[in-house]
From TrEMBL:
Pfam families: GYD. InterPro entries: GYD/TTHA1554. This is GYD domain-containing protein. It comes from the Bacteria.
Length: 111
């Protein structure tokens, strides 16, 4: 399952990064995601709403993603974190097929 995690660095994290500007945060993210059985797909720095990150990763266990997200918050690395489940086009095709099968079973309000 693919996920997108976005968040802003905390003041503590920014101070640590400024003190060691060559630190490799991508390697730290990769290590955490791989420890959860996943794979880092890509990582970007973002400036929206303050210095932060956007990380796209794949994990086989859906409970691993919120564990990764929660850990970054609990340890004071990130704040204002958002975790979004991403769907591949093959997955979305299956969702659409399921919706088509279920369509006759649902009555919308006012019907």
């Amino acid at each position: 399952m693919h996920f997108c995690l976005t968040g802003q660095y905390t003041q503590r994290s920014l101070t640590a990064i400024l003190e060691s500007p060559t630190t490799d945060r991508q390697e730290a993210a990769r290590k955490l995601i791989e420890a959860a059985g996943g794979r880092l797909i890509s990582m970007y720095s973002v400036a929206t709403d303050g210095p932060g990150v956007l990380v796209i990763f794949d994990v086989p266990d859906p409970s691993a993603a919120p564990a990764i997200s929660g850990l970054t918050v609990a340890l004071g690395t990130l704040q204002n974190v958002k975790l979004t489940r991403l769907f591949t086009q093959d997955e979305i095709k299956q969702v659409r097929q399921n919706a088509a099968k279920l369509r006759s079973s649902y009555n919308p309000p006012g019907s």
